[in-house]
Amino acid sequence: MTKEYFMREAIRLSEENVKNGGGPFGAVIVKDGEIIATGVNNVTRHCDPTSHAEVNAIRNAASKLGTFNLEGCEIYTSCEPCPMCLGAIYWAHLDRMYYGNTKTDAKNIGFDDSFIYEEIDLSPEERRLKSERLLGDEAIRAFKEWDIKEDKIEY
Amino acid sequence: MTKEYFMREAIRLSEENVKNGGGPFGAVIVKDGEIIATGVNNVTRHCDPTSHAEVNAIRNAASKLGTFNLEGCEIYTSCEPCPMCLGAIYWAHLDRMYYGNTKTDAKNIGFDDSFIYEEIDLSPEERRLKSERLLGDEAIRAFKEWDIKEDKIEY
Asked: Which element (helix H / strand E) includes A119?
């Protein structure tokens, strides 16, 4: 199977998802030359703002393999990931990413990907999202407890 | 209830979660002065790299309210969100964010938040994550279909 084959499957899922009432996004995860999981955008159907194609493909792959670490896997996504999904790809330790449409293409049909990339680049005070730091001296306790815990599972 | 009250609840969840074998993170979502949902980090317990406190709190709140749009809600998180969770906060349209620990505090106990922020800031070619654009001319079809769809639910 070629990388074009896997990308065409992600694209096929994205088109099918539009017909089914979801957003125009699809993703597949490949390990050892085989598709082990897929995902489509289910934000509106599942009332879940985190239900993007890449997040769903990662969750499905991790569940299937029984691990939170997807080293050895690659993701093919019909569109360049938004910051949420790109973050998920890093946390999952995927080896490589292939993408079709760009974040500019997504912006051109009304999606916020580019806006969120711009916001993340700013300091918290400069962002459109209002935010405030609070009780840092109390919050640090859990970090200290984690730091000294001997039987913790790191990720 | 004060904002300190809600932050202390997020902090309490983060400490409890360390005791229960999860990561040191907790979050609560507040609407009209009441906690409507909570979340803790379940990455290792649920074999899900996307199972961060903020993502879980958002999913729980959206499920409870039956909507993907959490305007009118605020999030209190025991640590400054990673890019995945910050992206989720934007997609959820939360009004405001309060946080306790910072991404530097998270880095100091071994979490990748700062690294991922640095990576997202780079162009795809400069990132540690290898990536490649593929078949953009075919991927764009789903976006065109979405763009002309008359009964689509935008988000």
From this structure: helix A113-120
Using the Cβ of B98 and the Cβ atoms of chain A, whether some distance falls under 8 Å is answered with yes
- SS3 of B71, please? coil
| Whether the Cβ atoms of residue A28 and residue A9 lie closer than 8 Å to each other | yes
Q: What is d(CA B44, CA B38) in angstroms, rounded to the nearest whole number?
A: 18
Which candidate in B54, B80, B150, B154 is catalytic? Answer: B54
Residues of chain B neighbouring A15 (CB-CB closer than 8 A): 141-142, 145
Distances (CA, A) of A8 to A4, A56, A96, A98, B9: 6, 18, 17, 11, 46
If we measure between CA atoms, which residue out of B88, B30, B39 comes closest to residue B60? B39
Q: Say if CB B37 and CB B57 are below 8 A apart.
A: yes
ipTM of the complex: 0.96
The low-confidence residues of chain A, meaning pLDDT below 70, are none
Q: Is B94 exposed, middle or buried (0-12, 13-18, 19+ CB in 10 A)?
A: buried
Could you tell me if A131 lies within 8 Å of chain B, comparing CB atoms? yes
Q: Give the closest-approach CA distance of B124 to chain A in angstroms.
A: 10
Per residue in B62-116, pLDDT (tens digit) is 999 999 999 999 999 999 999 999 999 999 999 999 999 999 999 999 998 899 9
pLDDT value at residue B99: 98
- Cα torsion angle, B86, B90, B94, B96, sign: positive
pTM for this predicted structure:
0.96
- Please give the distance of CA A27 from its chain centroid, rounded to a whole number: 10
Please tell me the predicted confidence (pLDDT) of residue A112: 85
Q: What digits encode the pLDDT tens for the residues B41-67? A: 999 999 999 999 999 999 999 999 999
Name the 3-class secondary structure at B8: helix
